[in-house]
Amino acid sequence: MLGPLAAFAQPLQAQAEADGTQAQSGFGAIVVTARRREETLQETPISITTFDADALVDRGISNLSGIGDFTPNLVFDQGTGNTGGSTSSQIYIRGIGQADFLFTTEPGVGIYVDGVYLPRSIGSIMDLVDLERVEVLRGPQGTLFGKNSVGGAVNIVTRRPQPEFGGRVSATYGSFDRVDIGGSVNLPLVTDTLLASVAFSSRDRDGYVRRVNDGTRLGGINSTGLRGQLLWKPSPNFDILVAADYTRKREDSIANTLIDVDQSGSLIGLYNGLVAPALGTIYDDRFISSDPFVSFGTGFNQSDLDLWGISSTATLELGAVTIKSITAYREQDAVFGADSDHSPIRYFEQSVLDEQEQFSQELQISGTAIDDRLDWIVGAMYFHESGFDQYRVVFAPGLFDALEALPPGIIPGLGGAGNPIHPALDFDGLLTSRINNDSYSAYGHFSFDITDRLSVSGGLRYTSDEKDFDSRFDRLSAGVTTHDVETGDSWNAWTPRIGVEYDWSDDLMTYASVARGFKSGGFNGRPTTEFVARTPFAPEFVWTYELGFNSMFADRRVILNGAAFYSDYSNLQLLSITSDPQGGIVALVENAGKARIMGFELELTAMPVPGLRFDAGLGYLDAEYRQLDASVNTITLSDDLVKTPEWSLSLGAEYTADLSDDWQLTIRGDYAYRSTVQHVADNNPLLEQSGYGVFNARLAFGPSDESWELAVFGTNIGDELYITNGLSQADTLGTTDVSYGRPREWGVSVSARF
Hints:
Elements: H1 9-18, E1 31-32, E2 39-40, E3 48-52, H2 53-58, E4 74-78, E5 89-93, E6 96-97, E7 109-113, E8 116-118, E9 131-138, E10 152-158, E11 166-174, E12 178-190, E13 194-205, E14 209-211, E15 216-218, E16 221-235, E17 238-251, E18 256-261, H3 266-274, H4 276-279, E19 294-295, E20 301-318, E21 321-339, E22 348-369, E23 374-395, H5 399-405, E24 427-449, E25 454-475, E26 480-505, E27 508-519, E28 522-523, H6 530-534, E29 536-537, E30 540-553, E31 558-579, E32 585-609, E33 612-628, E34 647-658, E35 663-674, E36 677-678, E37 688-689, E38 692-703, E39 708-715, E40 723-729, E41 735-740, E42 745-753
Parallel strand pairs: 7-10, 14-19
Antiparallel strand pairs: 1-2, 3-9, 4-5, 5-6, 7-8, 9-10, 11-12, 11-42, 12-13, 13-16, 14-15, 16-17, 17-20, 18-41, 20-21, 21-22, 22-23, 23-24, 24-25, 25-26, 26-27, 27-30, 28-29, 30-31, 31-32, 32-33, 33-34, 34-35, 35-38, 36-37, 38-39, 39-42, 40-41
């Protein structure tokens, strides 16, 4: 029950005291693997926030997206636009990320589970099963984590099998008929040689947006996860860890609500004039509910996911040299959709079928030399991915048939059977895409102690990406195939990092670093013409300059870490309005911008007296576009970058009182604040979220040996109403809808260790 920075201090404190390395009342070592080796947080020259499993429970975090509230300069929002997918995410670190879920665009923040890269937004909202810790690494991580970690990385480390039999179980009941059950068990099969562990998780909760016309809900959770590990240690210097996991989700669409209908949209006028009369009602603002948690929708309401993977990590220690091999295969199938018009009328619906599989092989060789003054690692990685995606869109259905039946001349340029303009106004479409991607990389990184106080570090990674892309778009009502394209391209990049670190004392370290990151190029995922389908965009790049410090003081009762940075962000992949070779106007993703982002993070954890702990995190961002190509007319230089709030703040306090020698009571409160944030690139005021704060609290009772615990908790106790996502198509379909965060909820949980 500690703050993020101190999340690992308690388990290691006894060992540290036995070694005589700290005062009895102070924090112990916090171990991280941000540089692909175990080292303490205080000696790692990177801006990091860490959480262990208990720290997440204490804050009411049940899936990965919740860490965004408690990590400076991190935005981790669920869903993308109004597509309905509850397992997709939008992750931004220091203003750099990716908003779209399509597999033709790469994330700006890399997610890694036990060293295995997860390349897709879909499936990234994962339940935290058998977790040891989560590390959020800010800034480019190009030398070690490599692929598409231009903004930073989220490094998830699961709990390895232990040599003693034991485990933990938990159960939670709460608002919206919430029932969560989870647990894990260690199974030592052969003493010190063959160890196993099994973990499971089941989460079920009703949705918090009611669809009053069909009696269903949006935003519901129905997820089951299973993870098993087998650790074989045939000798003291060699082990193999095999891990397998499976996740099954059968959930509602993400909780969207209609907030505006603009009658001046180009398609809504045609639809209401030509199609709606036959239906007996037009589409207008009558379908906007006065209750933000009520929808009049009746169409698609589905977010299903099947996700599984297997990995093998082999480690061989040869004196001062360690060889590690990480082999992994993963596969996912997702189906999701939404009624984006939020009405009984079938006016705007969309659904997605997405299948993806991947194979990766990484080899690392690391070691020490020169009397342990040099730490080094070299490695190589191969990554292959294939995917299939069908995106079904239904915009203004019936419009094509109505135009075909319309006598010519009533609407200038329209009407008359066979009019060649009519197919372009048929938005009853099916977009089919396939990808086949290969990535090759090699890297090296070192850290050298020049003196006992001064050290230097550096690294370099080379990455080569090859991508094949097939795209077909069928306009179903018109019976026209707009394009059927097979294309491909390749990109490569060098991403260096250099740094210098100085230990002023055992409890104060400062560092400076320069790092380059890149996000791979790709193809337009929603092409409406052959020209758009064939036109790729190149990688994004960022140079980040960082100064930081890690410190402990007040008899090691206080941890204070901070970093300031400046990022030069170039080749931004932005939506442009341009012309194709025939002179037609098309929407195209191009490398059409530059930006400058600077700011800082501060994180504090303090234990002023036994039983009392405080933690705080503060992030500041000053971001602006510096250059936009003339073809970019959706944003201006004065617009704010998307998902980049100026301020992010978290405050937490926890007190554990000994009721007797055998019993204790713990109370904890957490407050998370985020200043104004733009959820779309054009800064649509309807989708702007002004500054807001959310307060959570938890009260826990149990024996002093922590063998079991009974807790009651509340989240969003102030019942704050805030937007987490949204999409506006006001200029065409006339619709704007948003996703709100979950309302006030309460729960009771019981857990036990054995």
